[in-house]
Amino acid sequence: MGVIVEHFPLYAQGFLQTLRICLFSAVGALVLGTILAGFRVSPVPPLRAVGSAWVTVFRNTPLAVVLFAVAFGLPELGVNGSYFYFGVIGLTCYTAAFVCEAVRSGINSVSAGQAEAARAIGLTFSQSLSLIVLPQALRTVVPPLGSVIIAMIKNSAIVGAFGVGGDLFAQGIQLTSAQGYAAAGVLTGVLLGYLLLTIPGGILLGVLERKVAVAR
Amino acid sequence: MSTSVLYDAPGPVTRRRTLISSSVAGVIVLVVIALVVIRLANQGQFSGALWGPLVSPFDPSFLAVWRLLGQALVATLVAAALTLVFSLVIGTLFAVSRITANRYYRWLVVGVIEFLRGVPVVIAIFFAARVLPEVGLDLPILWYLVIGLTAYNSVIIAEIIRAGVASLPRGQAEAGYSLGLTRGQVLSSILLPQAFRVMLPALISQLVVIVKDTSLGFIISYEEFVRTANIIIQTLHNPIQTYAIVALIFIVINYGLGRLAEYVERRLSQAKRTAAAPADPATVDTGAAGGG
After folding, report:
1. Quick one: B65-274 is in which CATH superfamily?
2. Which residues of chain B are within 8 Å of residue A98 when distances are taken between CB atoms?
3. A interface test, pick of B123, B221, B241 with most A CB neighbours within 10 Å
4. Domain ranges in chain B?
5. Interface predicted TM-score (ipTM) of this complex, two decimals
């Protein structure tokens, strides 16, 4: 356990890097996922096809495969960047599929009468979606969306292992494999770092859930 | 045509507008795809040298490559099957002890479940592979992967089963007690069998997560698809093509499992409608939404 105290700065750095990966990916995935959900319920068939193709591909492919495909594929398309950005892009694309499904099921949970009423007073598709349905869907969507984000925080460890480096898990691998510390102590520190994010996240989610809960 | 509540059955004007926006969106999508394809073609990514070993039976490396991929498939399925069996057994034990625990040690069961749910799977696997040998437990790599995956999936399955038990009507347990069955008998012969049935779709969906997570075996050099792909790439230098094939294999397996879950769900709800309808099956949030 001494290793945690001895290398505390390394752990702190790793924690910050993990936080950075999660922040970028969470914002990206929420935006992209909501847009995709809009695609999936839209009256325009090509957009619906894009939405469902995205969900089918990214929900059924392991994150590790997505990450490797992004890291090898994007440079061929002329997009160059550090592994950090490739990692964030991979995690964003992957998580967006789950965000999309959560938002879509939220949209479907808004009772039909609401959308019918919106249509009855002459609102267009985008007006009824953005003014009537989405604000209500948001409440139902908070719990599943929170679970998606917490799962994403845990998935960020895969991003670290795949070579972004510098995050909590990568620091742990470095300390055990390269510097030869006993794995039990090192990895306990790494675990504590993740639990520091996921458990308060879960509690926060529970509070939010009670706050936005609405009888329907 | 459309049953969506978000927009009316289209009239002539809307139909025209939809047609126009569909064409515009379709053209944009096609242009993006075309740009990507052209770019990849310019980089020589469609050359026979890169694709041949994967798709052409006449290529000298074809057999060797697919033998490797076949072994990876077997490795993946073995790890997933073992994980499923262990997770079901241990998950049921977790669920039963959480349901029957008296309040003096319920916090302990809940604590263990919440802890294991909060641990990233990839770290559970790495932890098993590094720490178990330190305490003198030397196993084949497969078992480290299975242990790591089971640690996470058993608690998710425990929550699924618990939600299934909770979704059953009270009368089921009450009828059992009134017959003089003990608590354990009610649970094992009345509640659990029904809970498994109700939760079968959720359990199949969890199998998708397990299959996907076996890919994390590459961290500990277990020769599943990702590790195998990396080995193939080292000799053939065709990462995009190899990963495209690997992704396709995963999509086929998991899409099939997903459809199976939908089918079972439909069958169950049909059976329910014909029988006297009991309570709604709870919509469960197991926290597994983000997959692995």
Report:
1. MetI-like (1.10.3720.10)
2. 289-291
3. B123
4. 65-274
5. 0.84
